[in-house]
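Protein modeling request. Please complete all fields; requests missing the sequence field cannot be processed.
Requester role: graduate student
Desired output: 3D structure, token encoding
Chains: 1
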Amino acid sequence: MAQVGANMEYQEYKWAYSIMDSSKVSACLISMLLIVYGSFRSLNMEREARERAEKEREATLLGGKPSTASSANNNVQTLSTMQALCFPLGSSVALLIMFFFFDSMQTLVAICTAIIACAALAFLLTPLCQYAAGGVGGARVCGRYSGPELAAALLAAAIVAVWVLTGHWLLMDAMGMGLCVTFIALIRLPSLKVSTLLLTGLLLYDVFWVFFSSYIFTTNVMVKVATRPAENPMNVVARRLQLGGALRDAPKLSLPAKLVFPSMHHQGHFSMLGLGDIVMPGLLLCFVLRYDAYKKSTLVCQMGQVPGPRSMGSRLTYFHCSLLGYFLGLLTATVSAEVFKAAQPALLYLVPFTLLPLLTMAYVKGDLRRMWSEPFIAPTTGKLGADFDV
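Delivered output (390 residues):
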């Protein structure tokens, strides 16, 4: 009887046990770590760019020759209002192209994905290679790339090559993580207005293509595209050159548009999280982290010293608020997927849980007007405004 009662209790609360599965816990933790790392990587790049610009100005004033080394900040792209409005539309067009013409262009898609993922992995691995080299950049090759950067590029190329040969999910996840960190670090949102427009548009995009696309196209377009494997380029080469052996039997490739987390307790069970569900909220968290740093530097400049002990309210930064909201949104999306037993548009939960608390907190603190339009422009001209030009 006790065993029967335990089984009944398990069936009643099965959804609660499911959300504690190792695959779902891994998805939550890794996505949050990627956002935190990408945001701080972006902030560190920004700080280094300012320090480099300051040294070049000093060298110019002293009559020296400025450095010709390329700035990491040159690769940063700041989204405009129009780009934020057009992004969901462009994503919809790309999704439809992949849905209708994937079979005829899958080899090209796989090759382009491998090239982009290789560059993203190199970006992700560069700090690790710099740390292994003792924190020194080393001599630059052709005036642009240091030894650790070349080592990271070679390591990334090796990972991508092994992925092409084996199609292993772990290597696909590594490539996806590189893409997440690269996009979060190199794409910036200039204001809360642009952030709100972008995330609201993507929420509508995600909801439509997950919930309503099946009524028009007789299938879930988002899930179909995300889970469709691509023909391995090695197979194409082997057929063209009439080669046999392992090259001809290379597995199909599951493209790194998602992160896959297999369960340790249920064989064959896995959780899947799209890269957009990490990158897009991650861009918002990167923005608020930069604003927190700017606000702190403004306070230090005005006071002339580092602030003393702070209250609980001041310790809760916008970044902490948004990161907590992301966790709660991801948890809600996971529970909804278990309850309804169907794929859920994660942005339907992630956007309100990150954006609404942020807007409320900014309104309460009196920062909403400034964050909405020109968050990084100092109210009065001075040295601080020049030093924190983002």
